[in-house]
TrEMBL record:
<dbReference type="GO" id="GO:0006535">
    <property type="term" value="P:cysteine biosynthetic process from serine"/>
</dbReference>
<dbReference type="InterPro" id="IPR001216">
    <property type="entry name" value="P-phosphate_BS"/>
</dbReference>
<comment type="pathway">
    <text>Amino-acid biosynthesis.</text>
</comment>
<dbReference type="Pfam" id="PF00291">
    <property type="entry name" value="PALP"/>
</dbReference>
<protein>
    <submittedName>
        <fullName>Cysteine synthase A</fullName>
    </submittedName>
</protein>
<keyword id="KW-0028">Amino-acid biosynthesis</keyword>
<dbReference type="GO" id="GO:0016765">
    <property type="term" value="F:transferase activity, transferring alkyl or aryl (other than methyl) groups"/>
</dbReference>
<keyword id="KW-0663">Pyridoxal phosphate</keyword>
<dbReference type="InterPro" id="IPR050214">
    <property type="entry name" value="Cys_Synth/Cystath_Beta-Synth"/>
</dbReference>
<keyword id="KW-0809">Transit peptide</keyword>
<feature type="domain" description="Tryptophan synthase beta chain-like PALP">
    <location>
        <begin position="12"/>
        <end position="308"/>
    </location>
</feature>
<dbReference type="InterPro" id="IPR036052">
    <property type="entry name" value="TrpB-like_PALP_sf"/>
</dbReference>
<keyword id="KW-0808">Transferase</keyword>
<dbReference type="InterPro" id="IPR001926">
    <property type="entry name" value="TrpB-like_PALP"/>
</dbReference>
Length: 337
């Protein structure tokens, strides 16, 4: 194994993450399931990639000027990536977050020097939704840009040019399936487009949590949601600009319980401490692997995204009291305290 090349710019630490074969999921699917270790980015999530591309794009278009401020609405991870990128390039950040996201993400944002604004969680149609609030703040500030990760396709370009190309190279040009859940859709659409450009037979699947509207949209053409999920950063109710033209072949709907089961197994059996969107992605990858095997592709290789670190959810997913309050199963090693 060759060591990663030495870097002269800290921003070059974003991307080029490891890909790892997941033993338990591969056994459950009957084929290879690979996880892209996005928790290995400097901000510990997949969103560092989008933050870097959005900032570089705004600079290239002359919108982001020296000493400027980047304003963004986010479930947290994009804000963390944005704060790091902005610090490295001499910009300021204002981050707007719904106040039901994990405390760890809010504390991290403050620690990184971002100005944090929290708003109550509301529907997208509400003018006080975190996305609209972030846009308003950007409009009212001098020398500021609105990053607009949901509808700014610089986001998915990070995954076409980065994540997809890396997965293709890391698997020596043989990938049969890819799946992940959607927040902005940048990862799913970008990796889907990038892999299809290499081989149009790669099967691209949406993995949707309960409470999101995309499963019904891709299955029946209707945006419709049922139930809910405690997973942070995923669960979309509309077709964002990043999702437009996404090459989706099939779709799976995954419950929090199924996702949590994989979070628990990956931690206890494989030593990976992950967030719930990663567990939901792995459950989707197992479903996609099984589908490919049933179609006679016993040697299938499926890739998915391990989106962020579980250390970001110590007060939620890894807290017995919180799990109990959400009526979710408590990991047995957390005990009864
Ligand atoms: N998982 C987590 C933990 C996230 O924060 C996000 C981003 N909101 C995603 C998954 C989804 O990524 P994307 O925005 O590219 O759809």
């Amino acid at each position: 194994m060759t060591a990663p090349a030495a870097r002269t710019d800290t921003l070059d630490l974003i991307g080029n993450t490891p890909l790892v074969l997941l033993a338990g999921p591969s056994e459950a699917a009957g084929c290879e399931i690979w996880g892209k270790c996005e928790f290995a980015n400097p901000g510990a999530s997949v969103k560092d990639r989008a933050a870097l591309y959005i900032v570089r794009d705004a600079e290239a278009r002359g919108e982001l000027k020296p000493g400027g401020t980047v304003v963004e609405g986010t479930a947290g991870n994009t804000g963390i990536g944005m704060a790091l990128v902005a610090n490295a390039l001499g910009y300021k950040t204002v981050i707007v977050m719904p106040d039901n996201q994990s405390r760890e993400k809010m504390d991290t944002l403050r620690a990184l020097g971002a100005e944090l604004v929290t708003v109550p969680p509301t529907k997208f149609a509400d003018p006080n939704h975190f996305v609209h609030t972030s846009r308003r703040i950007a409009d009212e500030m001098d020398n500021a840009i609105w990053a607009n990760q949901f509808d700014n396709v610089a986001n998915r370009r990070a995954h076409i040019e980065g994540t997809a190309r890396e997965i293709w190279q890391q698997l020596d040009g043989r990938v049969d399936g890819f799946t992940c859940a959607v927040g902005t859709g940048g990862t799913l659409a970008g990796v889907g487009m990038g892999l299809k450009a290499e081989d149009e037979n790669v099967r691209i699947a949406l993995t949707d949590p309960h409470g999101a509207a995309l499963y019904d949209y891709f299955a029946h053409g209707e945006l419709k949601s049922e139930g809910n999920s405690v997973a942070e950063g995923i669960g979309q109710g509309r077709i964002t600009a990043n999702l437009e033209g996404a090459p989706i072949d099939t779709q799976f709907r995954i419950s929090d319980e199924e996702g949590l089961e994989w979070v628990a197994r990956l931690l206890r059996e494989e030593g990976l401490c992950l967030g719930l969107s990663s567990g939901i992605n792995v459950a989707g990858a197992v479903a996609l692997g099984r589908q490919l095997v049933a179609d006679g592709r016993e040697d299938a290789r499926v890739a998915t995204i391990l989106c962020d670190t579980g250390f970001r959810y110590l007060s939620t997913l890894y807290n017995a009291e919180w799990l109990r309050a959400k009526k979710l199963p408590v990991f047995d090693w957390l005990g009864s305290s």
